């Protein structure tokens, strides 16, 4: 057992930024906009580092797919406690069309190459809200998956995962190797400390090309149009319950 | 954001994320938006950007939500400061062997600037604490460094800097608190005024007179709380800086071991001034953070408030005013960072540059915050809106750590003294 954890971290537009749609409706404005690590990815990194601190895993490797700037995101993961990073270089048009299917192919290839035991990802990215990469990665590897994890406990060569589902909480036990996706309440990510940020400078980030992993990045999806959600319409005030029921009937709601 | 109360909070497209308490928009959260001309991360190394990011995150999550409450209830936020110390903020430019982070003056400036956007008063106290830790680390012997610095860097203990007296402010060298040598002790008599943290802190770095008149007769002693003869005045009621208590520190036959003296007798004034050079950069950095936050608040307000059928942002006078504020902010930032670099490198112009930075930046940033308040109209005057707290908190930066008038003295002396 390698005791190695792969953590995927994605560079996304910072959650606090006010998003603007590009005038040509092909996407949102990203130039000059503040980016940071996807919050669910932060939670994933925190969980991996916690496992290492409990000595349940031996090494935490942070992976990011994207252009040069993705290295900043990997550095943040290193400052939080990851041991080393892998930057899969994807830029230009390939980056525009990079989606969960491509990323999961990359993660699967890396998992085999690095002999990973656990892959932890955020449950979804806050830019596309896909919630697919974890599941697809597990399928490609034919590994069990513990998604929407709000609690993770390692138990020998199995993992107990408490999942947040619509009906409440579901507890499952899965074999390793496995894929986990982090939900909001799994943990509270730590702040990087100044000493850790300085130590992170010395940690290595390897550069890899998708072709080196034998991954084809072509996407069968095409974004046709991106637009703002409709403006919120004004409501109507009524005086009595009878009026309310009348109005609802008028609108065909009742 | 300090937008008008009834205006809706802007939520991300399609994301049900706001449950996370760390990310709930509060009236103080900064809109970190499209990279603008005032982005404070320009020109920084990747490592400095990481430091800045941690400081900004800490400020936004741990300080900004409590800024108003701490001010109104006059809370000294010990737990929050200890959390900051765990990240390494307790002794930022103190050496690592005694628990510090060993960073440069520029790194320190960047960190305080970012922390200040969350709460000026708390950050200013943290900077004073840092200054004291550095003084002991730099001028103390190994025994003193090991005795005091680790607890200060972790903020297990808090520190205060005691120079000013009721009778000597700008004329610091005329201080009267006496320290008479009696065997292996000094006996202190006198009082210090306006001491930040006084009464609540544990370690007091005290400048006192061991010799004759003037600066050469002053030494620096570290006095610990609980020492018999050490007492405190009433807590002062201030316009701002309410997150830190300010009290007089009184010595009545207070006996302090001679092993608590930093450096040699007569070196005290020099130690005090060297501490203040860095302190001035730190205070200026705090002013920068407040001005940065205020410009963002003003900008957000201009984009939202409508009068005469249009948002205020359409008004050319206000556009130009905002541009001037941004320009002064960036100019101030450049001056502080240059002064920090000069001090780090021990350049010949370091002292003057630190004084120039303190003078220029505290004045300009106060004006920026004041104008930001004006742009808010009546709302700017309400305590529900953060901008008034920034104005009140940084007003004192023009006075302490050497008044801006004393800064002018230092600079003019440099120019007019025949070399």
TrEMBL record, chain A:
Q: Which domain of life is it from?
A: Eukaryota
The molecular function terms of the Gene Ontology recorded here are: electron transfer activity
The reply on keyword Transport is: yes
- CDD domains, per database record: ETF_beta (cd01714)
**Where does this polypeptide localize?**
Mitochondrion matrix
Q: Which family does it belong to?
A: Belongs to the ETF beta-subunit/FixA family.
The record's PANTHER family line, in alphabetical order, gives: ELECTRON TRANSFER FLAVOPROTEIN BETA-SUBUNIT, ELECTRON TRANSFER FLAVOPROTEIN SUBUNIT BETA
How would you summarize the oligomeric state and partners of this protein? Heterodimer composed of ETFA and ETFB. Identified in a complex that contains ETFA, ETFB and ETFRF1. Interacts with ACADM.
Q: What does this protein do?
A: The electron transfer flavoprotein serves as a specific electron acceptor for several dehydrogenases, including five acyl-CoA dehydrogenases, glutaryl-CoA and sarcosine dehydrogenase. It transfers the electrons to the main mitochondrial respiratory chain via ETF-ubiquinone oxidoreductase (ETF dehydrogenase).
Name of this protein: Electron transfer flavoprotein subunit beta
UniProtKB/TrEMBL annotation, chain B:
- Which cofactors does it use? FAD
- Which pathway does this chain act in? Amino-acid degradation; L-valine degradation
Q: Which GO terms describe its biological process?
A: branched-chain amino acid catabolic process; lipid metabolic process
Into which family does the record put it?
Answer: Belongs to the acyl-CoA dehydrogenase family.
Name of the molecule in the record: Isobutyryl-CoA dehydrogenase, mitochondrial
Q: Which PANTHER family match?
A: ISOBUTYRYL-COA DEHYDROGENASE, ISOBUTYRYL-COA DEHYDROGENASE, MITOCHONDRIAL
Q: Which PROSITE patterns match?
A: ACYL_COA_DH_1
**Catalysed reaction equations from the record:** propanoyl-CoA + oxidized [electron-transfer flavoprotein] + H(+) = acryloyl-CoA + reduced [electron-transfer flavoprotein]; (2S)-2-methylbutanoyl-CoA + oxidized [electron-transfer flavoprotein] + H(+) = (2E)-2-methylbut-2-enoyl-CoA + reduced [electron-transfer flavoprotein]; 2-methylpropanoyl-CoA + oxidized [electron-transfer flavoprotein] + H(+) = 2-methylpropenoyl-CoA + reduced [electron-transfer flavoprotein]
For this protein, the record's Pfam families field holds: Acyl-CoA_dh_1 (PF00441), Acyl-CoA_dh_M (PF02770), Acyl-CoA_dh_N (PF02771)
Q: Which organism is it from?
A: Poecilia formosa
The UniProt GO MF terms for this protein read: flavin adenine dinucleotide binding; short-chain 2-methyl fatty acyl-CoA dehydrogenase activity
Acyl-CoA dehydrogenase/oxidase C-terminal domain residues are 266-416
The UniProt keywords, alphabetically, are: Branched-chain amino acid catabolism, FAD, Flavoprotein, Oxidoreductase, Transit peptide
Please explain the role this protein plays, according to its UniProt record. Isobutyryl-CoA dehydrogenase which catalyzes the conversion of 2-methylpropanoyl-CoA to (2E)-2-methylpropenoyl-CoA in the valine catabolic pathway. To a lesser extent, also able to catalyze the oxidation of (2S)-2-methylbutanoyl-CoA.
In which domain of life is the source organism classified?
A: Eukaryota
CDD domains the UniProt entry points to:
IBD
């Amino acid at each position: 057992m390698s005791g190695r954890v792969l953590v995927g971290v994605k560079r996304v537009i910072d959650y606090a930024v006010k998003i603007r749609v590009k005038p040509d409706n092909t996407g949102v404005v990203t130039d000059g906009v503040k980016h940071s690590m996807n919050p669910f990815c932060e939670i994933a990194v925190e969980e991996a580092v916690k496992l290492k601190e409990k000595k349940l895993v031996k090494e935490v490797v942070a992976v990011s797919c994207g252009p040069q700037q993705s290295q900043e995101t990997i550095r943040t993961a290193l400052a939080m406690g990851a041991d080393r990073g892998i930057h899969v270089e994807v830029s230009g048009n390939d980056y525009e069309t990079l989606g969960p299917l491509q990323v999961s192919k990359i993660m699967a290839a890396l998992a085999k190459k690095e002999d990973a035991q656990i892959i932890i990802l955020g449950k979804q990215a806050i830019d596309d809200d896909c919630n697919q990469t974890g599941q697809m990665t597990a399928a490609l590897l034919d590994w069990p998956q513990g998604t929407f994890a709000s609690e993770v406990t390692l138990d020998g060569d199995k993992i107990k995962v408490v999942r947040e589902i619509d009906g409440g909480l579901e507890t499952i036990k899965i074999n390793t190797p496995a894929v986990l996706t982090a939900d909001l309440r799994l943990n509270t990510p730590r702040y990087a400390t100044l000493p850790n940020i300085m130590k992170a400078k010395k940690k290595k980030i390897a550069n890899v090309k998708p072709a080196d992993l034998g991954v084809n990045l072509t996407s069968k999806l095409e974004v046709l149009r991106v637009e703002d959600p409709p403006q919120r319409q004004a409501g109507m005030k009524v005086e009595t319950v009878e009026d309310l029921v009348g109005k609802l009937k008028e609108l065909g709601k009742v | 954001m300090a937008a008008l109360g009834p205006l809706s909070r802007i939520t991300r497209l399609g994301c049900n994320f706001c449950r996370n308490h760390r990310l709930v928009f509060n009236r103080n959260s900064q809109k970190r938006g499209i990279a603008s001309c005032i982005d404070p991360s320009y020109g920084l190394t990747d490592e400095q950007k990481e430091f800045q990011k941690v400081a900004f995150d800490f400020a936004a999550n741990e300080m900004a939500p409590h800024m108003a409450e701490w001010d109104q209830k006059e809370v000294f936020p010990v737990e929050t400061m200890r959390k900051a110390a765990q990240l390494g903020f307790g002794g930022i430019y103190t050496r690592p062997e005694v628990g510090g982070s060993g960073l440069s003056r520029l790194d320190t400036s960047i960190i305080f600037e970012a922390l200040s956007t969350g709460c000026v008063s708390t950050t200013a106290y943290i900077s004073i604490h840092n200054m004291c830790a550095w003084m002991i680390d730099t001028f103390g012997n190994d025994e003193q460094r090991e005795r005091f610095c680790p607890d200060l860097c972790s903020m297990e203990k808090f520190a205060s800097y005691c120079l000013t007296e009721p009778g000597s402010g700008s004329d610091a060298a005329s201080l009267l608190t006496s320290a008479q040598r009696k065997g292996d002790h000094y006996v202190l008599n006198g009082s210090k005024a306006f001491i930040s943290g006084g009464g609540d802190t544990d370690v007091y770095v005290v400048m006192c007179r061991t010799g004759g008149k003037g600066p050469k007769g002053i030494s620096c002693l570290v006095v610990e709380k609980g020492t018999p003869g050490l007492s405190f005045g009433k807590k002062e009621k201030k316009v701002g800086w309410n997150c830190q208590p300010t009290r007089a520190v009184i010595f009545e036959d207070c006996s302090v071991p001679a092993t608590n003296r930093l450096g040699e007798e007569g070196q005290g004034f020099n130690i005090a001034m060297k501490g203040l050079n860095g302190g001035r950069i730190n205070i200026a950095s705090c002013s920068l953070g407040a001005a940065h936050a205020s410009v963002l608040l003003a900008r957000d307000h201009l984009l939202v408030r409508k009068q005469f059928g249009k948002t205020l942002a359409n008004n050319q006078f206000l556009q130009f005013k905002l541009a001037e504020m941004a320009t002064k902010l960036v100019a101030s930032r450049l001056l502080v960072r240059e002064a920090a670099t000069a001090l780090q490198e021990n350049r010949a112009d370091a002292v003057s540059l630190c004084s120039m930075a303190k003078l220029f930046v505290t004045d300009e940033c106060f004006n920026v915050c004041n104008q930001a308040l004006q742009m808010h109209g009546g709302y700017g005057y309400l305590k529900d809106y953060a901008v008034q707290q920034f104005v009140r908190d940084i007003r004192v930066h023009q006075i302490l750590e050497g008044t801006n008038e004393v800064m002018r003295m230092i600079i003019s002396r440099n120019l007019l003294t025949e070399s």
